[in-house]
Amino acid sequence: MEAESEPYVRLATMRQLHQAVADLNTARSLADTLQTVADGIVAGLGYELGCVNLVRPDGDLVIAAFAGNAAAEALITGRVGSRASWERRLSMGEAWDDLRFIPHTEGWVLLDDDVPQWHTEGPEPRFEDEWHPLDRLYAPMYASAGGRDLLGVISVDRPRNGRRPGAWGREALQMYASQAAIAISNARLRANMQRALVRLEREQQALRASEESFRQAFEYAPSGMAIAEMGGDQQGRLLRTNDALCRLLGRPASVMRRYSFADLVHPEDIGTLLRTSAEGGRAELRLSRRDGTYLWVSLRNSVVADTADGPRFLLTHVEDIEERKRHELNLAHRASHDALTGLPNSAELKSRLSARICERPHSPATTAIEALDAAYGDVESSLTHGYQADGYEGEAAPGGGPFDHHVHAVAPDPEHDDGTKGLAVLFCDLDGFKSINDRFGHHTGDAVLIEVARRLSTCVRDGDTVARLGGDEFVVLADGLGAADAADLAVRLRNAIIPPIRVDGRAVRVGASFGIGWAECGMTVEEVLRSADQRMYVEKRSRSKVHRRAG
């Protein structure tokens, strides 16, 4: 009769197994799935107790779900067994395909290991295939079909028929373990996806908040800010500008997007801009305003990327430093110019003169070839002495090396006009100024000095220098003059000074004595000025007192 009823038992078990597997797919979370697996063991496979042991990230197994006994569930759920103890269990007893059965005759050695256990009471078995209370049956679950990556272990106890499962029962448990592994993997995947979606949403919210924060910081920054392209044909083109920069340069944002900073920078500052754009950092330069004027600004560049591998942009912070630059230029001007007349002072005069002469004395050249050698260095000498077989050896000539492009200053011969042009240094000392200063006071004396400075400045060329050494002494530097040209200039300057100067309704007159010196390479600045000063005193003594005083 049992043989005839076996198909019906298999059919009933199949229905129960099918329902248990179907229930696995209805669970909504990983915890629900694990509990459904445990409940399916009791409801669908005919065991009184079912336990799901899940592998943790550290490799140990935790009891994640229990079914069939509320007391046992409360006692051992959440407890952990080591991976080593579980591997020992899965290598003992009898292998029923993927299942592992440990009979009570062998399992007594496991009573003291660290795997949580729940012992059931019952009578000693009377038949060979009867279930003993200390028998153990495990169904390993693997993460992928055919793979050996352990996902967890299902442990069962006390079959309802009291017998060890036969071939069909073993196959049903193995099939259920396989489906349970799939359900748990899918539940984990869904949980991971949900966590990833939550994390992504949080990151997107943070990104949106960051973008909004940047937008507000960019748009409402008190100083100018701009975003420009990096690389490609549109290198440096302005993509976005804030209101502060538009107001600073007097152009609307729609117009600013037509330009790059290279279109707006002062021609003299283009090199500074290109270096700053390529290297980042800070630079001070001038940008063009809509009205055609230039404004001093400080640029601070930093490179930013849209994404980790996205295009790069140049974020530029633009600060108005016009007032500071004006103050710096004013301080520099005051340091290098006379406070009373506005002319270059003694220090500035010496600096300009020093830039024109060098320490190497000029050697006269009699031919055009020798003149070129003198101006640019002796090529033959540099080839034979400047370059040795082992590289750049040998000494350079004092004051310059081979191919020195410095044009030496020479002094024309006052006796023979051979067409030589030089740098004339005209030393001027006012005649009669002391008496005006003593008689009418410093106010009148200062007014006279200011007017003399103006008259001297109007009589020279744009590239010439008129400087005040101090007191009533002035110096004029005029390059490219011959001896006769310098003498004519001295006469013009003296004639410009002689006319009466009106101060507070009073006309006063001063004269002037000029000494003409020449700046020549090989001389020091002090020697050049001393030479012109001495010639001025020679000229002053050569004229009678009546002629020296203008009136």
UniProtKB/TrEMBL annotation:
It comes from the Bacteria. GO terms for molecular function: diguanylate cyclase activity. Residues 186-213 form a coiled coil. Keywords: Coiled coil, Nucleotidyltransferase, Transferase. Its EC number is 2.7.7.65. Pfam families: GAF, GGDEF, PAS. Residues 210-269 form the PAS domain. Residues 281-333 form the PAC domain. SMART domains: GAF, GGDEF, PAC, PAS. Residues 421-551 form the GGDEF domain. This is Diguanylate cyclase CdgB.
